[in-house]
Write a structure and sequence with these properties.
The complex is a heterodimer of chains A (about 130) and B (about 170). Chain A has about 130 residues and is α+β, with helices and mostly antiparallel strands. Chain A is built from three helices and five strands. In chain A, strands 1-3-4-5-2 form a five-stranded antiparallel beta sheet. Chain B has about 170 residues and is an alpha+beta fold. Chain B has a five-stranded antiparallel beta sheet, with no helix packed on it. In chain B, a hairpin with a 5-residue loop joins strand 3 and strand 4. The longest helix of chain B has 10 residues. Chain B is elongated and about 60 Å long. The chains are: A alpha+beta (about 130), B alpha+beta (about 170). Chains A and B meet through helix 1, helix 3 and strand 2 of A and helix 2, helix 4 and strand 2 of B.
């Protein structure tokens, strides 16, 4: 893979419905993710996005960009700030290595809560993709 | 005061093994792909998957490390039905630190997952503002019914001391 490889930013809103769908898909029914009263009692403005959902979004972003011949081999990430329902998120990925059989990327996920200011949700994110044979 | 009690220290090295009561399933794969907006045909188009060298549709890679499907645990008082070490640290709030996943092979609907969790380490640290933290490092290895290693997951969970007034 010698051509310059650019992965488009992912931008989307994470609504409360999105959180419910993800909770169901992962069998993670922790009330923090959908129960507004519960979340507020814990000091949050709204139900909290499962941080691993952000990782799943980045995984889909990079695998979709490279195509079905590639698959994720590793993915590592650190959480920085909680993300609440109704936030907009933006995942920016930089390609740091692109060989015939291995691609390495680094990424950051930023979030903007409703009526709030942008902050880092997850960083650093590092991933390796390998060619599927 | 140390957050690392003898009871918690005694848990280091503990393991828990869960085997799913059923195969992962094509519907679970498509549900998770739908949940994250992953419209990759590998997730739901068997012919497309086989045309690209896979035996069957392929799960989004993080599904295996993020689902509690295999655990078959009852919900706790907060609604959670996944693996925990049962560690409770009074006066703290729980924060996820992060994860490091290694995906060894593609995951397919027919895989019956076994997840083996191990509590690798518990350490004490301080936040930048001086609050006490207890950092749990765990590892899960996921295999299928043929004993093939599907993925590994190193996970960090942090208990952060809540200062008087609610901050930390």
């Amino acid at each position: 893979m010698s051509d310059a490889l650019a992965i488009p930013d992912l931008e989307r809103e994470l609504t409360l419905t999105d959180l419910v769908v993800y909770a169901g898909a992962t069998w993670d029914w922790h009330r923090m993710h959908y129960d507004t009263d519960f979340a507020r009692a814990k000091g949050m403005a709204a139900p909290v996005v499962d941080g691993q959902m952000l990782a799943a979004l980045v995984a889909a972003q990079v695998e979709s960009a490279l195509g079905p011949q590639w698959r994720l081999s590793t993915l590592a990430f650190r959480f920085r700030n909680l993300v609440v329902a109704g936030s907009s998120i933006r995942s920016h990925v930089e390609v740091t290595r692109a060989d015939d059989d291995v691609v390495e990327v680094v990424a950051e996920v930023h979030s903007t809560p409703p009526g709030g200011t942008e902050q880092v949700a997850m960083a650093p994110v590092t991933a390796t993709l390998v060619r599927h044979r | 005061m140390s957050l690392l009690t003898d009871d918690i220290r005694a848990l280091i090295g503990s393991t828990r093994t869960y085997t799913a009561p059923e195969p992962l399933g094509a519907a679970a794969i498509r549900y998770f792909a739908t949940a994250i907006g992953d419209d990759n045909p590998l997730r739901s188009d068997v012919r497309f998957a086989r045309d690209h060298g896979y035996a069957d549709v392929v799960a989004p890679p993080t599904l295996l490390c993020e689902t509690n499907q295999y655990a078959a645990l009852p919900r706790d008082e907060e609604g959670y039905a996944g693996h925990t070490w049962g560690v409770a640290v009074p006066g703290t709030r729980t924060v996820r630190g992060g994860n490091s996943y290694t995906f060894h092979r593609a995951v397919h609907p027919g895989d019956v997952v076994t997840a083996t969790w191990r509590l690798d380490d518990v350490t004490e640290r301080r936040t930048g503002t001086g609050a006490a933290m207890l950092v749990l490092t765990s590892r899960a290895d996921y295999t299928n019914g043929d004993g093939e290693l599907l993925a590994s997951n190193e996970e960090t969970t942090i208990f952060v001391e809540i200062a008087p007034g609610g901050g930390s």
